[in-house]
Amino acid sequence: MRYSIIYNAEYRYAFAVTDQQNALRIRPADNGAQTLEGFDLTIDPAARLYRHSDYFGTEVIQFAISESHDHLRISAEARVSTEEPPPPPDPGADALTGKAFRDRGAEYLGELEPAADREKVSALADEVRGDRPLQTLRSLCELIPDRFEYRPGATYVGSTVDDLLEGGAGVCQDFVHLGLTLLRGEGIPARYVSGYLFAPNGDSADSAEVNTHAWLEALIPAEDEEDEPVWVAADPTNRSFAGDDHVKIGHGRAYSDVPPIRGVYRGRAESSVEASVRMTRLDRSANGN
Fold first, then answer.
1. What global pTM score does this model have?
2. Which comes out higher in pLDDT, residue 243 or 226?
């Protein structure tokens, strides 16, 4: 698939602010299964952009605005192509115990902070656990949306796994954090993924207003122990493995490693924000769909 992704965010401040500093993680990744064909970013007020890759390989765009201002507009357009991933490997559970495999995924095996209620997580783990790692991953993608309601507004950006367990509802970020907790508890390294999901609705099958989305990637050993393990992307919010309708930005141990925007400013002004993301298929005419 080929997509155009237009990201807009506008912050308004009740009074002028100064010394604004921000770090953006909104640029789609450019890797083997996903090709970034172009990316344009505009900041208003104008600011010099500094780019670097963070520890996990996600591109971070930083900028600072020192002068007084009462608004901040961030506008980005990306053009990206994706491919359907190949079938995942399906080894036995004993493949998780090898030292080389565990060393490879060690930093994605730790508990989230704060740690979730062990008794509640253990009960869910008993239901999710399969005879093979891939079976566990598939089961997780069914159990989480069966057991928990997807309800925007039920949680907030700082909510924990316990908030989801107690409230019974949350959003994709919460579903992924629970998925990470369950997989890591089974010895399966798993990481948080931030990106965009093409989910058309209404009258158009080719363009849609979307939100930034979250899914996870689980490290599954190769069936031949001589081969490299594979990161398999799964979307528990949508009961499926991730496909060519998922556009990845980056990954980390949890949401806190890949927020779309993080920043500070000097001033006491209250702020409001309006944000939108529009995804449009660019290959619809060529495919005749």
1. 0.94
2. 243
